[in-house]
Design brief:
The complex is a heterodimer of chains A (205) and B (140). Chain A is 53% helix and 20% strand. Chain A contains nine helices and ten strands. Chain A has a three-stranded mixed sheet with strand order 4-1-7. Chain A has a three-stranded mixed sheet with strand order 2-8-6. The radius of gyration of chain B is 20 Å and the shape is extended. Chain A: Keywords: Membrane, Transmembrane, Transmembrane helix.
């Protein structure tokens, strides 16, 4: 019983080119005291220039390395069977290009403006506004501005409410739908990478 | 005559039934009620909010179909407009087009820091687009 090593891979790890990945970088480890530092400093992977942006390290591979070094130990893996290591390139740590951000800003600004126009036409919003104004006040009016201006501003307030952001302040601490959506998107990407980039998975019969 | 009336009642009821459940399904898919309850931490009152949706739909259908004119001062349409706009804003924000575009921009174009900035582009775009449409674009 005294010879068991427990491994739990971390969620994600970031390295630079030509760095070594040691076991303690990518996993939580419980090991017998006499082995602990040696196991923690085991080199699992050497990042070279040939590596692409992402590396997937399989738990089986790690167990293999430990077994080779310390055949007397029994290794148990807990949790996820692989870890994604992301290589930080200089372009990733750089700040985004301000011109690109402004371009996207204008793109989204005009695009969402057009989308709301299309939506209003699609559902005959103008007709509905005239009808509502008539029903409330009993007066026919082609442009019920007192209804339409607050309506337009309300659209903005509603969107901000939904995203839980008043510019930079958060109303409460729970994640907003956008943050959840970003998380899910990242998770889907990771799942794809794990299945498609994992060298161990690629070996076919 | 009586059979015609019965048939009309059945057709009307069936149509309303389908439209009503479709409306509820639409609102449910967009998660607007859970989102609002989360914001105000009012999970106890979620059944009240459900009822508010139903009462609202029935009341305004009735007012519209019967052509009931309330003869209220125009200030009331200001209040109505503000609330209607907020609801449409939540609808627009909840639609997946908005929710799915931003993560991709953040990831692909390496703009995770600018995401709030881009979100404001969408919000301001909607407000400007709506004002433009209602004030300038339409002719009398």
């Amino acid at each position: 019983m005294g010879n068991s090593v427990y491994l739990r891979l971390r969620n994600r790890h970031y390295v630079r080119f030509n760095e070594q990945i040691t076991l303690s970088n990518i996993a939580q480890i419980i090991a017998p005291e006499s082995y602990e530092t040696r196991i923690k400093n085991l080199v699992v992977y050497q990042v070279t220039e040939e590596d692409q942006h992402l590396i997937v390290i399989d738990l089986m591979r790690i167990i293999n390395i430990i077994k080779k070094e310390f055949p007397e130990l029994e290794v148990r893996g807990l949790g996820k069977p692989e870890i994604i290591v992301e290589i930080l390139t200089s372009s990733m740590t750089k700040k985004p290009n301000i011109y690109a951000v402004v371009f996207v800003w204008i793109l989204l600004f005009i695009g969402s403006g057009l989308a709301i126009l299309n939506f209003h036409h699609d559902v005959s919003m103008v007709e509905v506004h005239r009808r509502i104004y008539y029903l409330i006040t009993g007066v026919e009016k082609a442009k019920p501005l007192i209804l339409q201006i607050p309506y337009s501003i309300g659209i903005g307030i509603g969107m901000i409410l939904f995203f839980n952001h008043v510019f930079k302040k958060k109303i409460n601490e729970e994640p907003s739908p956008l943050e959840v959506e970003m998380f899910l998107y990242q998770q889907n990407l990771d799942q794809y990478v794990v299945l498609n980039e994992n060298k161990e998975n690629r070996k076919r019969q | 005559m009586i059979w015609q009336s019965i048939l009309l009642v059945i057709v009307g009821l069936a149509g309303g039934f389908v439209v009503g459940s479709g409306f509820v399904a639409f609102i449910t898919v967009l998660d607007i009620v859970p989102r609002l309850t989360q914001l105000i931490k009012g999970f106890k009152y979620i059944s009240w909010f459900q009822r508010a949706l139903i009462y609202g739909a029935v009341t305004f259908t009735w007012l519209d179909f019967r052509g009931i004119v309330l003869n209220l001062p125009s200030l009331f349409s200001l209040i109505f407009g503000a609330f209607a706009g907020m609801f449409v804003g939540m609808l627009a924000a909840a639609l997946t087009e908005v929710l799915n575009v931003l993560p991709i921009f953040a990831k692909r174009l390496n703009m995770a820091n600018a995401i709030l900035f881009l979100l404001m582009a969408m919000v301001l775009g909607k407000v400007t687009g709506s004002l433009f449409h209602l004030l300038v674009y339409i002719d009398k």
